[in-house]
Design a protein that fits this description.
about 270 residues; alpha/beta; Rossmann fold; 8-stranded mixed sheet; disordered C terminus
Length: about 270
């Protein structure tokens, strides 16, 4: 994988990726074209298969991938959430996996920084036949309150109404955005937050926070895995259950441990 031109082009495009969340060579749009050509319409399983096929054989993409995707599948299936929030739509792959296993009456709200990515995701979701179950919102939680207000005013996000969060966007934003969610009190005891790429490329502040909160406000399971679409670079997915917030102050001090998942490579 590391010698493939698509991966080398991805590395060359990291600066562009950091600014726009697109590699800069058109691969995101090419993915939508590939899915609409090679996956059966209204077949979510076949759309997921086609995306994985594209990523293995055509162009490397930074979605959660098939290996870590199974961890996300299991977390959603176990939580049975009705209202879900995703931070980082990209091309819509993780939203497909979430929609496939979430309850029939559930709705996923997905926040995406780049409107071009949001358009790619909508096209893929519509081809899969699940577009009406996912609401994509162009923005960030750090846009002077506009997206937060949209979630609250238009989509009725209110204290205790959010069951599940999947975080897979700018790594430095993991902890600040979680704090914004906590400040709005949208979570309730039992809400689940899953975070990708905690080891690679890494979200050390978020990981330290969850370690400090273990057994206090949060209980976290650490799932060792690999970065998407290869078996060399190791990664970690955190699955954290919210226990409640006894006071207004969230500290990053406390027991420095996480509960290790019994399966090292799900």
């Amino acid at each position: 994988m590391f010698l493939r031109w698509s991966y080398l082009r991805f590395l060359f495009g990291l600066r562009h990726m950091g600014a726009t969340w697109q590699v800069g060579d058109g691969r995101e749009q090419a993915l939508a074209d590939y899915v609409c050509t090679h996956a059966r319409r209204n077949d979510i399983d076949d759309v997921i298969r086609a995306i994985d096929e594209f990523c293995y054989t055509k162009s490397y993409l930074i979605n959660i991938g098939d290996e870590k995707g199974k961890l996300l599948d299991r977390a959603v299936a176990a939580a049975q959430p009705r209202r879900l929030l995703e931070l980082g739509t990209y091309c819509g792959y993780s939203a497909l996996r979430i929609a496939r296993v979430m309850p029939a009456d559930a709705v996923l709200y997905s926040i995406e920084f780049n409107p071009a990515n949001a358009a790619v995701a909508r096209r893929i979701w519509d081809h899969a036949g699940i577009g009406e179950r996912i609401v994509v919102i162009v923005g960030t939680l750090d846009d002077d309150g506009r997206t937060l207000s949209t979630l609250g005013d238009k989509h009725q996000f209110a204290p205790g109404t959010l069951d599940f969060v999947f975080i897979d966007h700018e790594k430095d934003a993991y902890l600040p955005d979680l704090r914004r969610i906590l400040d709005h009190e949208w979570l309730h005891p039992g809400s689940v937050v899953v975070a990708d790429n905690v080891k690679y490329p890494g979200a050390p502040q978020y990981r330290a926070f969850m370690r400090g909160q273990e057994g206090l406000d949060w209980h976290t399971r650490e799932h060792p895995s690999h970065a998407e679409y290869q078996k060399i670079i190791k990664d970690v997915v955190l699955e954290s259950t919210y226990l409640g917030r006894p006071d207004d102050e969230q500290s990053v001090s406390g027991p420095n441990h996480l509960v290790q998942d019994e399966q090292q490579h799900p």
